[in-house]
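In keeping with the milestone schedule agreed at the kick-off meeting, the structural modelling team has produced records for the first pair of proteins. Each record is given below as a sequence line and a structure-token line. The laboratory manager (R.T.) confirmed that both were archived under the project's standard naming scheme.
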Amino acid sequence: MYKKLIKLQVNSEKMECTVRNNITLLDLLRDVLDLTGTKKGCDTGECGACTVILDGKAVNACLILAVDADGSEVQTIEGVRKMSLHPLQISFIERGAIQCGFCTPGMIMSAKALLDRNPNPTSEEIKTALAGNLCRCGAYNKILYSIKCLTSK
């Protein structure tokens, strides 16, 4: 099996890893780097549980090969919390947008990517940004409200 040395920045930390050519970014994060906040859901890009921010864009980590992330900047849910909870995390907690919590990391990462590029999105823009994230508990209204409360529109 072919292996390659890749260099990437994960949660502001520079890293080098030798990876197989077929390992996904999700498996690298969870199994090699022990960043298990990124959830493994469907493993086919349908549920959004594995959403991370790759070079400023929300992506499904299960669909990206680790070798394709070489030279990239990756932010996971572990990187969102610096010294204290991120405002998105606080808003989700305060508004009851966390039920089972399985979808929460992916939802937060998709919302963060949106708010990073557009701090005042409309409700429709929020819905579009979260369109690839599924919540089995059906907490969508509370999730949307939690994000909307951080914007001025």
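The second protein of the pair:
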Amino acid sequence: MRGLPEIDARYWLLLLTASVCGTNLGDFASDTLGLGFLGAFPTFMLLFLVMVFAAGRVAFVDEAYYWLAIVISRAGATDIADLATHEMRPSSPWLLGFAVIGLGLTLAVGARFGQNTIVVSADPGGGATARPSGNATYWVAMILASAFGTVAGDYLASELGIGLGGAALVSTAIAGVAVVGLGARVNASKLSYWGVVLAIRTVATNLGDLAAGDDGLGLGFALSCTAAFAHLIVFTLTWRPRRLATAS
């Protein structure tokens, strides 16, 4: 996929914004549009697969394409995670453990076949730049991380009984520490990267629910999703990256 962004402070802010948008988009499709979890999930996954297939075959792929893929994959992951927690009803800690194990296995198998999820390259000035790879292993891992974030966010807010506001504060603090401690390091390992992604996906669930829910801002899924998408566009256009790269 071409136009892959550099992993820096800008990247983490955009990932959070795209994740909030995807969270509320998934809820909008399953709840407001009445598609249900089983109707919304295949729709988003089909759209995502079409985007991935077309990425190497169309001329207009750039950074915005990557962020749109993040939004769509997060929406689908939200619906499949909600299907598990709301209808199948296994224990949330078990689901979280399953998602982490699945993520670890995905990274291990991908590495075995030469598909690293983070690419670090040298700059002409002697520094280093890290970017997501955008390969199959990367996107499977991102969907698993998104499902983890949905379950973890709901677990904090509902099952631990601290409410949306409390969950948003706790998950934001954790994500902030993760970004400062791990995400700012260009040479951070792929495990560090995915640790920060898990934290970002979790706080996005809480912030999205806080914006949309009646016990929060009460914007509803459509308006909160639209607001997050508008912020994503503004951030992408006004806070320009230093450079973009091509990766497969």
